[in-house]
Amino acid sequence: YIPPLIWGKSGHIQTALYGKMGRVRSPHPYGLRKYLTMPDGATATFDLFEPQSEHCIGEDVTMVICPGIANHSEKQYIRTFVDYAQKNGYRCAVLNHLGALPNIELTSPRMFTYGCTWEFGAMVNYIKKTYPQTQLVVVGFSLGGNIVCKYLGESQANQEQVLCCVSVCQGYSALRAQETFMQWDQCRRFYNFLMADNMKKIILSHR
Predict the structure, then answer these.
(1) Is the whole model's pTM more than 0.85, yes or no?
(2) Taking 80 as the threshold, does the pLDDT of residue 6 lie above it?
């Protein structure tokens, strides 16, 4: 692999370019928002997107997607991924992390965490009940990768109807990663500040 000159050789430039281009060229797939009441009173939400063409193997396949930290179905990278999946015959269900959507109020005294699989599990169970013949492709981005892998490992029953699991850019050790994020080398500490500031905004929006 030979990366393109200039932007292809720098992760910083790639991040900045996609942040700009994504706002202009990002698709807007149409989906239905579903609401699920959790046992503790929390209101979980996910967006459901139907396929726009027949799947290449002619079967019913649903991608159950868990976004990255503080993310939801309205983020540009999720919309781009869903649009591509729909056009290739996949149904998509995208979890909205508890507390991440600005227009959805919390109905219990908690928001999403690094290890809680309750909302994702509720979404998967809804899909299995509504589409009993569907096969599942489990997809997790970053923090979502941790959640989906933990979910599949919690119970053998959680693996039923699952064809495969794809974990994209998953972090494996929060403690070791934090040591790296505290370094100034390659501006890592700057990203740590941005992520922490984003989390603070979400928490304060629900105070």
Answers:
(1) yes
(2) no
